[in-house]
């Protein structure tokens, strides 16, 4: 495939910065837009792009996807073959406290991205969605054919609303749209409020961790390199084929209890596990579990990182970076 010019929204974030590096390394030209908000330390996100910033085929636009002037700057920086839209306000529990903010960033922001994709005649859009759209009532394992109409949090509802907006956009204009439902992504640069990062930070400092519920809730933890591989494969498929609307789960088909996860992290750190249990939190679901048969068949998506190997990689990054942030917001596993 010829090298492409790609706009990545949220390009300084956890997944976004890894995707940017992968696209640059294969020779694509990349423009990233990020507003470096204060959900966690903006300097952490700027460091995420340190290697990309040195590349001649990279441009960074410091801007907000809700701001028309910022979007004009981003969309006029190049002629794009595709947009990968990852910018979002993340986190299940924080969305319960700030539903208006989540609606503004995730729904209005996505609408504005769609408007600019149409205005600039861009033929491919990849949208970063979430396994949270399945809620707690979907059949196990979660299939893309599930109606996903009972979300358990404002965050989940904004992601599902954005998927539907993407579908309407595809129906109206014929743009190739792919929605990717990410399952509990972890790895170097993971957001500091997420369970793996939070547990690692506390245990490495000799502190106890808090597990909400009894620790038997299970998650389909997916290493960031596998997620980026899925994004790139979906991008290349969309660029090569006729316009379509597709949804893919990007997970591993393996689930791990939070108690097991905590023990693995303590083992990777070489420290004792100290746990305090608290009542389950609103918005939490008992399990996430991806059926990835569609992604395997159509994208040749093959996740290759076992959880313990991925955790060792995360711990090595955490220790080398000195602990990326002291942010202790309550997030989700």
Concise account of the structure shown:
The chain is α/β, with parallel strands linked by helices and 333 residues long. It has helices at 14-25, 42-48, 50-53, 68-75, 92-97, 99-119, 154-173, 195-204, 224-240, 258-269, 293-299, 307-321, and strands at 5-9, 29-34, 58-62, 82-85, 124-130, 176-182, 185-186, 209-212, 218-219, 222-223, 245-250, 256-257, 275-278.
Task: Give an account of the 3D structure.
The protein has a domain at 5-185 and 223-250: NAD(P)-binding Rossmann-like Domain (Rossmann fold), CATH 3.40.50.720. 42% of the residues lie in helices and 17% in strands. The protein has helices spanning 14-25, 42-48, 50-53, 68-75, 92-97, 99-119, 154-173, 195-204, 224-240, 258-269, 293-299, 307-321, and strands at 5-9, 29-34, 58-62, 82-85, 124-130, 176-182, 185-186, 209-212, 218-219, 222-223, 245-250, 256-257, 275-278. The strands form 4 sheets. A 7-stranded parallel beta sheet has the order 3-2-1-4-5-6-11, with helices on both faces. Helix 1 links the parallel strand 1 (5-9) and strand 2 (29-34). Helix 8 (195-204) packs across helix 10 and helix 10 crosses helix 12 (307-321).
């Amino acid at each position: 495939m010829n090298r492409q010019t790609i706009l990545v929204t949220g390009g300084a974030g956890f997944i976004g910065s890894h995707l940017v590096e992968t696209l640059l390394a294969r020779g694509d030209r990349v423009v990233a837009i990020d507003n470096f908000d204060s959900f966690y330390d903006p300097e952490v996100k700027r460091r995420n792009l340190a290697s990309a910033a040195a590349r001649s085929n990279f441009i960074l636009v410091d801007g907000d996807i809700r701001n028309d002037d910022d979007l004009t700057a981003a969309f006029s920086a190049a002629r794009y073959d595709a947009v990968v839209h990852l910018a979002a306000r993340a986190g299940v529990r924080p969305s319960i406290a700030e539903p208006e903010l989540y609606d503004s960033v995730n729904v209005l922001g996505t609408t504005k991205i769609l408007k600019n994709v149409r205005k600039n005649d861009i033929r491919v859009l990849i949208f970063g969605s979430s396994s949270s759209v399945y809620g707690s009532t979907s059949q196990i394992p979660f299939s893309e054919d599930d109606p996903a109409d009972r979300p358990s949090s404002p965050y989940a509802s904004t992601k599902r609303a954005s998927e539907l907006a993407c579908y309407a956009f595809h129906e109206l204009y014929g743009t190739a749209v792919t929605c990717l439902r990410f399952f509990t992504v972890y790895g170097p640069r993971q957001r500091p409020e997420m369970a793996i990062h939070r547990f690692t930070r506390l245990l490495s400092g000799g502190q106890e961790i808090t597990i909400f519920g009894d620790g038997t809730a299970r998650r389909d933890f997916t290493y960031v390199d596998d997620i980026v591989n899925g994004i790139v494969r979906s991008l290349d498929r969309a660029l090569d084929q006729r316009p379509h609307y597709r949804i893919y789960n990007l997970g591993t088909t393996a689930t791990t209890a939070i108690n097991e996860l905590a023990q693995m992290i303590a083992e990777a750190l070489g420290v004792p596990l100290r746990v305090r249990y608290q009542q389950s939190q609103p918005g939490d679901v008992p399990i996430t579990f991806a059926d990835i048969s569609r992604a395997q068949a159509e994208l040749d998506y093959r996740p290759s990182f076992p959880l313990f190997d991925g955790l060792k990689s995360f711990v090595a990054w955490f220790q080398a970076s000195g602990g990326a942030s002291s942010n202790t917001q309550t997030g989700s596993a």
